[in-house]
Amino acid sequence: MGRARTKTKKVKPVATKTIAEDSEPPSIPALLEKAQSLIVQCDYDLAKLFVQRVIEREPTNVEGKEMLGVVQLETGDIEAAKQTFLSLVPPHPEAPSSPPPSAHLYLAQLNDDDPHMALQHYQAGVDIMNSQLKGKERAVDTVGVPEDEAALRQNTVRALIAMVEIWMDPSYDLCFDPVAEKTCEDLLNLALQIDPGNSEAFTSLASVRLSQQRPGDAKQCLEQAWTSWKDLEADDSRLPPIPTRLALVKLFLELSLYTPALLVLQGIMAFDDQEVEAWYLEGWCFFLMAEQAKENGGTLDELTWQELGRDARDCLETCQTVRVYFFFPLHFFDVELTFCDTSSISIRNILIDQC
């Protein structure tokens, strides 16, 4: 008797799709998200490829054009970036009905050779952001301030401060205009209405007070600028940006407020001990303290002028070391860097004086 043959089922061939049939092109939001992540990673060439795919599919995509302008700026194509941002604001025929404020803010910075045009763009950006803030205020109240609203307030304040800086810049003729002082006051008052307690606004107001020969009021503004964050840890996200804190230090030094200046610098270097300007300013601070100690019997805060001078030298030698490591140009330190109205000195001179 033969072996029984097992029956086998015939397997029907499964219909398969080709890769081209199965895959779909990535969505516009996915492309924008990828481009944004590449910009954050400073991979601008690859980000540009993703942005271009967006614009090929949607030539009027506002977010895509904004990103393209940013990439062009970061890669040094300044004129192309300017044209991209101009296409996002009136009177360009392709400008959206609600222009993004960032386009005006970028154009303001790209018109640094024309202060009047820069002010117009800053004002347009501020007007748009103010309208957005009013819309958020009319929305349903929530507990606390939403993160996007806080960022919007901060950006509005920074645009107002940038306008103040243009009005105060001695390289422009605007600082001699009779309305310059009142304009700066009005801009900073508006900034503090939008974001009460804003550290950058108080720092800018302190600078205005110094220009008005009102050192007492300037000190009060600096104290208000510092109070809200002076007890925060070095890595706290609520701290102002390092450039803002360095600007505060320079004003402290101009008013001979050495202790708070050193405390702010210590916080900066606890976060980033490779910050060249912080090392320079700390050395400058110790040098000024040594000079004051010489005038006051040889000591200051229980330290002799020689000890303060050695501290100044140590800081400035570290500054030079960090500068060499990061390939800062030599002239950055050889020229006299003036941070106070009354005196200036170069690192090389301090090192020679204290040897």
Automatic annotation (TrEMBL):
<dbReference type="InterPro" id="IPR011990">
    <property type="entry name" value="TPR-like_helical_dom_sf"/>
</dbReference>
<protein>
    <recommendedName>
        <fullName>TPR-like protein</fullName>
    </recommendedName>
</protein>
<feature type="compositionally biased region" description="Basic residues">
    <location>
        <begin position="1"/>
        <end position="12"/>
    </location>
</feature>
<feature type="region of interest" description="Disordered">
    <location>
        <begin position="1"/>
        <end position="23"/>
    </location>
</feature>
